[in-house]
From TrEMBL:
The chain crosses the membrane at residues 100-122, 128-149, 183-207, 219-237, 249-267, 307-329, 350-371. It is a multi-pass membrane protein. This is 4-hydroxybenzoate polyprenyltransferase, mitochondrial. Signal peptide: none annotated. It is found in: Mitochondrion inner membrane. GO terms for molecular function: 4-hydroxybenzoate polyprenyltransferase activity. The gene is COQ2. Gene3D superfamilies: UbiA prenyltransferase. Its cofactor is Mg(2+). It comes from the Eukaryota. NCBIfam families: ubiA_proteo. Keywords: Isoprene biosynthesis, Membrane, Mitochondrion, Mitochondrion inner membrane, Transferase, Transmembrane, Transmembrane helix, Ubiquinone biosynthesis. Its EC number is 2.5.1.39. Belongs to the UbiA prenyltransferase family.
């Protein structure tokens, strides 16, 4: 799985090659998009939105954004029925990076708690599957809410003008109904975990629903996103029947610092457009000091991660030592190498955090398997 992730992202982002099969796919997507636009072009909403975009971006910029959207659909989403594709895009199914980054802290907490309690293998794997499903659904819900609240910002940023609501392919009413269905599914997943942690799980809805609002009045929306994305670092412990407050809080604080780093790198992609759109972020606030702040955050993150291991009694386990060592190396190298003025380089290093997180997950899983075999 670890080797698969970067290939998946390269395929999603740059699937077009000189091969005839990929050219055929691109032509089919262009034709599909043209049919969709022809169908909805007569609606006042789409006509109005097209006029707004025409005033803000050149035809070449809009054509490039449309081409990149079609390329980014990838081999799975592009094969869905045409009417389903805008909703898949609302959930960011074509960009699973967010789902993985939401899921990784869940795996850490579940596996650490399973090791502490000696949980049966099947129970642990089942909980990992439940949290994986929840990460997919709730990340999609969060993206839908984000697009609903950010519609008037997304159409001012070149990278986001092709999002379904900003481009007029999905109406607000349709998006609200879709979000309701996602929320119902998400609550269904929460009901599959022990009832004593239901309130903790449901409490995550507040930051999920309010995160997009913070970029309007504070330079630290990334702090709210970091709360949201790492809720699983708390929830995994009680889901496995363990309320280890010290380890829970240390792990949560560690992953919070990690998210502040990688999401600020992500925000550096759009900093030029964000200034014009009036959107605030840590990328704009920290500016040229970002890497120095990253260094401080990484020191805090790794220290807190070590304390979480110590508190859980697994600090000296081989998987924890090796996994955290590789994770630390990749984190420090990312901070050193990333070019914050190059959007493509920011994206590359942002997505690299998936593998970094999964490597540490693999280390924790190795220790857990040794424990199950009576070798630890």
């Amino acid at each position: 799985m670890i080797r698969f992730i970067p290939l998946l992202h390269r395929q999603i982002r740059f699937p077009i090659t000189n091969s005839s099969s990929h050219n055929t796919l691109f032509k089919r997507l262009i034709q599909s998009s043209s049919k969709q636009l022809t169908t909805v072009q007569s609606t006042p909403q789409v006509q109005s939105q097209s006029a707004i975009l025409a005033e803000r971006f050149t035809p070449e910029e809009r054509a490039l954004a449309s081409k990149q959207r079609l390329q980014g659909l990838g081999p799975l989403v592009s094969r869905l029925p045409e009417s389903w594709i805008p909703y898949a895009e609302l959930s960011r199914l074509e960009k699973p990076v967010g789902t993985w980054l939401l899921y990784v802290p869940c795996t850490w907490s579940i596996i650490i708690a399973a090791t502490q309690t000696g949980a049966p293998f099947v129970s642990t794997m089942s909980m990992l599957a439940i949290f994986g499903t929840g990460a997919l659904i709730m990340r999609g819900f969060g993206c839908t809410i984000n697009d609903l609240l950010d519609k008037n910002y997304d159409d001012k940023v070149l990278r986001t003008i092709e999002r379904p609501i900003a481009s007029g392919r999905v109406t607000r009413k349709q998006a609200v109904a879709y979000a309701g269905g996602q929320l119902a599914l998400g609550l269904g997943v929460i009901l599959m975990i022990p009832l004593d942690c239901f309130v903790l799980g449901a409490a995550s809805l507040l930051p999920v629903c309010t995160y997009p609002l913070f970029k309007r009045f504070t330079y630290y929306p990334q702090a709210v996103l970091s709360l949201t994305f790492n809720w699983g670092a708390l929830l995994g412990f009680p889901a496995m029947g363990l309320w280890d407050i010290n380890t829970m809080c240390a792990l949560f604080a560690s992953t919070f610092c990690w998210t502040m780093i990688y999401d600020t790198i992500y925000a550096h992609q759009d900093k030029k457009f964000d200034i014009n759109a009036g959107v605030k972020s840590t990328a704009l606030k920290w500016g040229t000091h970002s890497k120095k702040i990253f260094s401080g955050l990484s020191l805090a993150q790794l220290s807190l991660l070590g304390y979480a291991g110590y508190s859980a009694g697994i600090l000296l386990n081989p998987g924890f030592l090796i996994g955290s060592g590789i994770f630390s190396y990749r984190l420090i190298k990312m901070i050193k190498d990333v070019n914050l003025d190059d959007p493509r380089d920011c994206w590359k290093h942002f997505t690299s955090n998936i593998n970094s997180g999964l490597i540490f997950s693999a280390g924790l899983l190795f220790d857990y398997i040794l424990m199950c075999l009576g070798l630890l």
